[in-house]
Amino acid sequence: MTESKSMILGCAGKSLTREEINFYRNECPWAFILFARNIGETEQIRDLVAEMRDCIGRPDALVFIDQEGGRVQRLRPPLAPNYPAGGALGALWRDDHDAGARAAWLMARLHAFDLLRYGITADCLPVLDVPIEGASDVIGARAYGKEPRAVIELGRAAAEGLMSGGVLPVMKHIPGHGRAFADTHFELPTVDASLSDLQRHDFAPFRELNDLPMAMTAHVVYSAIDPKNPATTSGKVIDEIIRRDIGFDGLLMSDDTSMKALSGDFPTKAASILAAGCDLVLHCNGVFEEMVGIASRTTGLEGKSLERAKRALTYIRKRDAAEENEIRAEFATYFDAVA
């Protein structure tokens, strides 16, 4: 079997083209990610997931998706209910901390039921960003709240809910996207807050949840740390902040390289991301020529990165014995629209 490369890739449509099959077989990405353009009906999703894994000869390969609730939710009815955004959970938490945390766990456990039905095994959740007033709404209601404690408690509950259902969580966007005044899909934001403010407010949720298996970087410049490079391509941010200050030694993946926040061509992006200390390069939009560029400068998964990847897989727990109908009924006592 070909050595896995340090990349997570998407695909263009609802089934793989012959060109994609040959490419994945030769380049062997470590994992895959699905978006709304890849989602049709039940058997189609299962077939696509199986085909992806078959290409690289790894039936246990992770398949990721963004299934948060609210506006960031790739599986929609009838494949999965429409769930509330993180901000709705935060509102519940502010009224009753225990109820908010329980609802966050229940919703994540329901995500796990939904995702495993199609063979999807990793969810890019929880969102641990703590927005400030006036920041870009790219995070907005996706956040659990504007205070670190709410984000910490609800983020932990969501991660535990996913893992109890056999799905791996990915906390994002480390070390914090909440102060960004621009949407990284289109431009690169710079955050000018002091290091002490960042440590107290933005970094706090990631530090508290630094034992989770995976994290996704922020395409954000923190001028107090590295005024030239976004976290994703900053060796200083990754080494001094993410690894040392925050204390995260799990598997670190970039945010999407097809977003406009990162400069350079795709080979340059891939090389810069890995050189900075990320373990994995993420490319989401399925554009074939871009994936070829990513693969051209992506190396084999080895050393500490391979150790982290192997360790992440050990977080996949045997699913608890919870009954889906009971979980849905309990969640409906908080949010009856998804009963």
UniProtKB/TrEMBL annotation:
Superkingdom of the source species: Bacteria
Short name of any one Pfam family annotated for the protein: Glyco_hydro_3
Glycoside hydrolase family 3 N-terminal domain location: 32-292
Catalytic activity, EC: 3.2.1.52
Key words of the record: Glycosidase, Hydrolase
Gene Ontology terms: biological process: carbohydrate metabolic process; peptidoglycan turnover
One Gene Ontology term of the molecular function aspect: beta-N-acetylhexosaminidase activity
UniProt catalytic activity: Hydrolysis of terminal non-reducing N-acetyl-D-hexosamine residues in N-acetyl-beta-D-hexosaminides
Keyword Lipid metabolism included in the entry's annotation: no
Cross-referenced InterPro entries: GH, Glyco_hydro_3_AS, Glyco_hydro_3_N, Glyco_hydro_3_N_sf, NagZ_Beta-hexosaminidase
Similarity section: Belongs to the glycosyl hydrolase 3 family.
Name by which UniProt lists this protein: beta-N-acetylhexosaminidase
Taxonomic source organism: Rhizobium loti (Mesorhizobium loti)
